[in-house]
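Honest question from a wet-lab person: if I give you the sequences of every part of a complex, can you actually get the arrangement of the whole thing, not just the pieces? Trying it with mine:
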Amino acid sequence: DVKVTQSSRYLVKRTGEKVFLECVQDMDHENMFWYRQDPGLGLRLIYFSYDVKMKEKGDIPEGYSVSREKKERFSLILESASTNQTSMYLCASSLPSIFGEQYFGPGTRLTVT
Amino acid sequence: AQKVTQAQTEISVVEKEDVTLDCVYETRDTTYYLFWYKQPPSGELVFLIRRNSFDEQNEISGRYSWNFQKSTSSFNFTITASQVVDSAVYFCALSELRSSASKIIFGSGTRLSIRP
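Yes, you can. This is the full assembly:
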């Protein structure tokens, strides 16, 4: 059974803290993605990675960075968390093809106070 | 620009009614894929269907059916004889091929509530 796991379901952090969100997939997928989901806005792509150490900005990369040192792991980093980064964060992975559907993790609900 | 529009923000129906979720897309690509995902209250998005741009045949899977019409750039999803377990947020999505990797553009979602 395919699996994408995220390190936490719920996280509460203070403004200015450095935050790490971890995502691990066991499907040997080349592509991995980080989205944030906000009411009325659907899923918006923050960053994606198409190979180890390779990354590309998505639609809303400001305030975020990513790291992919191993194929199965993709980390999202909030360098200095702000309240407007309170959101649901979803990780996904896929094969490297236009028709490769994405497999999603359960999400991390991050609250920044 | 690539875009997916789900004009229905929320739909509420009584169990056993049929319900259709609308999806309209915009793309410059001639080859693309369309998807529907379901997000139940647990939060994890679940893949439902993929359809490529060259296949306009409607698809039926149990109580679910999909109607793809290139002429109107629509990919609508119908649930027949709805059940409470169908309550979820449904996302329509469009693949986008970039130089480095394919991406998926999601619509804003339709929240479907099925009342007993």
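Two things worth pointing out. The first strand of chain A starts at residue 4 and ends at 6. The radius of gyration of chain A is 13 Å.
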